[in-house]
Write a structure and sequence with these properties.
Radius of gyration: 19 Å
Number of helices: 11
Length: about 290
């Protein structure tokens, strides 16, 4: 989707128009997916977890699992793993979206990557599938520091990342889930591209300082080369291609704020300091 087709008008949140529907949540055990599923359940919907180990198995790489996962589904949250920038992702997401439209799915909500050309190609594929759609476009998650691959780095006291001086508009996963659920269950979100950020830009040195203040631990940032970061990722079982992706998106291309949370929900986004304090209070950084 080109920027010319992006709708930047404010969307007024509305009450859910349906209840008791079945929503497929791909990546339903991940950071965003499990929050989306919990919110849908609280609203009275059935959240069908899309994962290889679910009662109705779903696997992005195995088309034979798609039809059963889509059976009886009215909406679907699309969180592609490992990332939309990886080879084959655009084709897979496009094929699945068309399959979903043919199966009668009325709404697709795609979790997309901010500043990634391949991710925007996936957005176009979803938009052209022939059913209702919305895009939730994000960059760095706050929760990467407490629920994901950077948790161990925080506990070790050093964020070794291929990041220079560029600032990032870190976004909270709870905001992502709230926007996704609104797009899945409310009217007024069709055709919307919601670019989500937090309320301010932070460098990784700023992040280290915020985490230190919240946790009571000394945490510092150290810039590393992509090759060094590739070794770090290999040590925690993640594909080395993430090193290239992170190097690319940390070049300053995302160093500006967007209003997606405000447009979708009518409220400001959560600040990193509030996230850090809540995470510290949960004990996740205690040793």
């Amino acid at each position: 989707m080109s920027e010319d087709t992006k709708n930047t008008q404010t969307t007024t949140p509305t009450a859910p128009t349906t209840s008791g529907t079945t929503v497929l949540v791909t990546g339903g055990t991940g950071k965003t997916g499990r929050r989306v599923a919990d919110r849908l359940t609280a609203l009275g919907h059935t959240a069908r977890i899309g994962s290889r180990t679910a009662p109705v198995p779903f696997d992005w790489s195995d088309e034979s699992t798609w039809d059963a996962a889509l059976d009886g589904v009215t909406a679907a949250y699309l969180a592609y793993y490992p990332d939309l920038a990886f080879p084959g992702a655009v084709e897979t997401v496009g094929a699945f979206s068309r399959r979903a439209a043919k199966a009668g799915v009325e709404r697709l909500v795609l979790l997309s990557g901010r500043g990634e050309e391949a991710a925007q190609a996936a957005e176009e594929a979803v938009a052209g599938a022939g059913t209702g759609w919305s895009v939730v476009r994000c960059a760095w998650f706050n929760q990467n520091f407490s629920e994901s691959f950077l948790l161990e780095a925080v506990l070790a006291g050093e964020l070794a990342l291929p990041a220079g001086v560029a600032d990032e508009p870190f976004v909270d996963v709870d905001d992502i889930a709230d926007v996704a659920v609104a797009a899945l269950t409310e009217d007024g979100h069709h055709g919307q591209v919601y670019e989500l950020t937090g309320p301010r830009l932070l460098s990784f040195a700023d992040v280290a300082a915020e985490l230190s203040a919240a946790s009571g631990r000394e945490i510092r940032h150290r810039a590393v080369t992509p090759d060094e970061f590739r070794e770090v990722l290999a040590g925690i079982g993640l594909p080395g291609e993430f090193a290239d992706l992170f190097t690319m998106i940390l070049d300053g291309r995302n160093a500006f704020l967007a209003d997606g949370v405000q447009r979708a929900l009518g409220r400001p986004p959560r600040d990193f300091v509030d996230y850090a304090r809540a995470a510290a209070a949960s004990g996740v950084w205690n040793t």
